[in-house]
Structure formats: C-alpha cells, structure tokens
Amino acid sequence: MPKTRQPALPLGGLEVITLRRGAWLPDGYHLTPHRHTHGQLVYAAAGALATTTERGTWIAPANRVTWTPPGFDHSHRFYGRADVRVVAVPVRMCGELWGHPGVFAVSHLLREAILTLTGKPETRSGAHERLLSVMIDELTETVEQPLHLPEPHDDRLRAVTDLLHADPGRTATLAELGRAVGASERTLSRLFHTELGMSFHRWRTILRIHHALQHLTNGVSVTATAIACGWSNSSSLIEAFTDVIGQTPGRYQADHRKPCPSCHRARPEGCFNSPGDRRFPSASPAARA
C-alpha cells in the first residue's frame, strides 16, 4: 500500500478514513488491491476515480460516489488531479446499503455531508455518526448509476473484451472480433447477455465512456476524445455521454474547471492552503502501475 495513505482515524466512535484531508492525488495514482472489514464510500470531489473488483470496474466522476461492501477485494485508480474523500461505514450500518459494489449519484446534501465528514474535526460528541446516518438515508434513496463495466469469465468472451480494453477505439464488429478469437458472432452475442447482462454494443459504449471520462478529466477536447475513443464524430460522443452520465461532455468539463468551494482556486490545479494540507509527492512507479 502506498505510504501516502493514512491509517483510519477514530472520530467520535466513527471510523473515517481521509487521504490527507483536502489534498489532491496526481493523475494516474493507483491504490493496489486490498480489502476492508468495513464498508467504504469513495468520492472524488474533483477529478474521477475507478474502483475495480472481481465483478468489474465502476467509474465515478465528481458527481458520483463508489460503494464497496465489507470483504470485497478492490483497487482504485484516480484521473486528473483528484480531491479524494474516503468514508468507512461500520459493519453495523452496512446492512442498510447494498450487498454489492456500485456507483451512485451525489446530491448536493450528500456532497456537503461527505466534505464535512472528511474535512472537519468533530466538535460535538456523536456529530460525525449522526452525519453518517444522514448520508446513508440519502444514499438509500439514490438510484444506482449505469457506470459498471462487468468482466467475463468465459475465455472466448474475455479474449474479445481484452482486445477492446487494449484499444477502446477499435471499430470492429462483433463478427470481426469473433473471427479474431475463433468464436461465432451468435455465441459471443449470447455470452454478452448471459454473462454480462448487456449487449455487445452497450458494453463497448460503457467501456468508451470510462475512457472518455479519463480524457475529458485531463482536459482533452470533446472532438479529440471522440476520435480517441472510437466515435465517428463529436455528436455521437455527446449523445452517448449524455445518456450515461446525465450531462454533456462540455458541461462535465466546465463543472470540472469550476473553482474549489473551499479555496476558490480553479480545478484541477488543486488547493493546498487549508491548515495541515500538503502536496502529495509524485506517485511511485509501483503506485502508478
């Protein structure tokens, strides 16, 4: 585990993890696979993050939060300069949330609760636990977002998804990919539905959206992102992105560039003027692997 990760801090009887409160992680920073006995909510107040488990990968821009229940091996990778907030949910409270990993929309109330819980010391006994209860109430009213990219177990299907992971912009049809891996289009289409619960087209679209978020978070133009991720033009990217994310790529980038509410510096340059905040050192090669 990278040394920049701080241990859990007991705050008012509630275990809360922060990654250097208010500090920013560099683009590409990677936390290797690990597990917790508690549940975990991870939120990038700026930037984006991907959480990966054996069930696939969930990506979360700044208007989403990822949830990992206790006992799941998982890793995180961060994109752009990411202001990362991590909240541990005690086991006794996890039953109110989901028994599987997921990504969920962040309301204004939930965002402010996360920022307060991870950014301010507890001044009244039990305040943090009461705030966590509010967060859980808010989350239970939230619909799971379609940003999960499941991964297959069948060798033939995995061979196809490996080709697309290596080149998300690849425009080959399912029949062409099938010929490359020695499987029929019909068989692969069936496997996409039975193993992954979605069509080939939908799976590839979610994969491309994951990569588009990474490009857009790092300031790549909408047109260049569309070309890099396999869309024929920017209009096609805008349509797919809006359908999945709920806002246009341009709006997503504009929101990402808004000033930080705590220090008013433009993202993604970051804010380091809060008491006790420090820049993270450059991630080590192992951390960025």
TrEMBL record:
GO terms for molecular function: DNA-binding transcription factor activity; sequence-specific DNA binding. It holds the Pfam family HTH_18. Gene3D superfamilies: Homeodomain-like, Jelly Rolls. Residues 265-289 are annotated as: Disordered. Keywords: DNA-binding, Repressor, Transcription, Transcription regulation. Residues 158-255 form the HTH araC/xylS-type domain. SUPFAM superfamilies: Homeodomain-like, RmlC-like cupins. InterPro entries: Homeodomain-like_sf, HTH_AraC, RmlC-like_jellyroll, RmlC_Cupin_sf. The keyword Repressor applies. This is HTH-type transcriptional regulator RipA. It comes from Umezawaea endophytica. The lineage of its organism: Bacteria, Bacillati, Actinomycetota, Actinomycetes, Pseudonocardiales.
